[in-house]
Amino acid sequence: MPGLIAVGGCRDGERRLRYNLVVVDQAAEARTDRIFHALSDPTRRDIVARAVAGELSVSALARGYAMSLTAVQKHVAVLETADLVEKRRRGREQLVVSRFETLRGARRVLDDLEALWRDRIDRFGEVLAELTEPDPKNPQPRKPDPIEGDTP
């Protein structure tokens, strides 16, 4: 990948990558990937939403879907791997509880991406403004150079 440089000698022994002067922790990237993979399925998003409202047993969750208990257990396992929910035992029941700190972390990732894109859009606006500013020597606004393949 262009701009990607391996950085060695990290104190914690993890391999890190530097991309456009930003150090990216691969373990954090893998966690983020697991979170968004888990949230990519509508059933799993619904399970998380129901778990946020309060703890539910896996069997109570399964009654709300047109699928087998085993299928719901597999969805819960994916969410558990992503640390979006945790299962607790109460007698014979397994209760599913949401993990708010993981949801907050996913929100921070989205907020960071939003800030990045807003900054890029602002810079794009500044470039466009510069292109349309009149040259003091020539009162006509500058026209951008034609794009290759355009015909005047």
Number of helices: 5
Mean pLDDT: 80
Radius of gyration: 25 Å
Helices and strands, in order, run as EEEHHEHHEEHEE
Structural class: alpha+beta
- Gross geometry: elongated
- Poorly predicted runs are 1-10
Q: Characterize the biggest β-sheet.
A: 3 strands, antiparallel
Main sheet: which strands, in order across? 1-2-3
**In angstroms, what separates the terminal alpha carbons?**
37 Å
Number of strands: 8
Residue fraction in strands: 15-25%
Helix content: 40-55%
Can you describe what's shown?
The protein is α+β, with helices and mostly antiparallel strands and 152 residues long. Helices cover 51% and strands 21% of the residues. The chain is built from 5 helices and 8 strands; from the N terminus they run βββααβααββαββ. Strands 1-2-3 form a 3-stranded antiparallel beta sheet. The chain has a 3-stranded antiparallel beta sheet with strand order 4-6-5. Strands 7-8 form a two-stranded antiparallel ribbon. β1 and β2 form a beta hairpin. The relative contact order is 0.09.
